Structures are given as structure tokens and as C-alpha cells.
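Hi there, hope your week has been kind to you so far. Thanks so much in advance, here it is:
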Amino acid sequence: MTNGLCALSALFVTAVLLTGCSQSSAPNDVAATNKLPTAEAVLGPPPPIIAGRYMIIHSPQVERDTMLLDTATGRTWQLVNNGTDQQEVLAWQPVARYPNSDPN
């Protein structure tokens, strides 16, 4: 009786394994590959970046590397501290340019 029970159990396990391997539980291709769609696929391409006339470029290392750029003329200013040790007074100081670099 034990041999018959073992054979029946083995047959049942084999049937479950074969049935489970042949069926796909994923309803679509996204779930079948276990990958989510990208944001661009869902939302479309991002809009173009349109810069204004002035851009502030900031370095995360030090304050003195903060610059102001006029995108129309190319003129540049650097943020400087014109104050004292007790009071900070920030101002934009023009950056000198080479004479032959002026586009106008």
C-alpha cells in the first residue's frame, strides 16, 4: 500500500509541476518581463528647456563661484561679499573680459 501511495504522490507532483510550467500567470508583456514602463513611455518626451535671459550658475563648493550670465550679450558677473566681518553685503561684480572676446 505504501508503494501505491508513493507512486500516486509522485504522479500528482509531476502533474502539478508540468501544469504550472506551461501556464503563464502574467496578463501582459510588462508583467511577464518584471519591468515597469519608463516615465517617457507613459508621459511622452520631456518638454525642451528654455533658458531666460539671465542664468545663475552656482558651484556647490564655495560661494565665490556663483556667477550671473546674460545669455543675450555674454556679459558675466561674480557674486562677491562687499561687507565686513560683522555684516555680509553681497553684490554682483562684473567679470573682466578679453578685448577680442566681445561678440558685439
